[in-house]
């Protein structure tokens, strides 16, 4: 049963890699983000998507750690 889980995990990572590659190659148009007075540099859309994913993971980890820390007290 362990080899099935390992196979599925590797297959999921491979699929994620393929999706990331397609995303990076298909979304290469530069985009400028504007929020009120702030204007960012022009980066490809794929970079913004990857950046937002990593920021989301980081915020999720911080909130999860804070929640676990508060629940122990």
Structural description of this entry:
The protein is mostly helical and 73 residues long. It has one domain (2-72). 73% of the residues lie in helices and 11% in strands. It has two helices and four strands, in the order αββββα. A two-stranded antiparallel sheet has the order 1-4. Strands 2-3 form a two-stranded antiparallel ribbon. It is flat and about 50 Å long.
Question: What attributes characterize this protein structure?
Answer:
73 residues, 2 helices, mainly alpha
Tally the helices. 2
Shape label: flat
Strand line-up across the major sheet: 1-4
Poorly predicted tracts of residues: none
Count of strand segments: 4
> N- to C-terminal separation?
38 Å
- Main beta sheet: 2 strands, antiparallel
Structural class: mainly alpha
Helix content: over 70%
Question: SSE order in H/E notation?
Answer: HEEEEH
- Can you give the mean pLDDT? 86
Taken together, the total number of domains comes to 1
What fraction strand? 5-15%
Radius of gyration: 18 Å
């Amino acid at each position: 049963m362990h080899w099935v889980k390992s196979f599925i995990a590797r297959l999921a990572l491979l699929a994620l890699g393929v999706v990331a590659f397609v995303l990076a190659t298909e979304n290469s148009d530069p985009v400028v983000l504007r929020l009120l007075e702030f204007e960012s540099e022009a980066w490809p859309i794929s970079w913004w998507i990857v950046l937002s994913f990593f920021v989301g993971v980081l915020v999720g980890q911080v909130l999860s750690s804070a929640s676990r820390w508060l629940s122990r007290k």
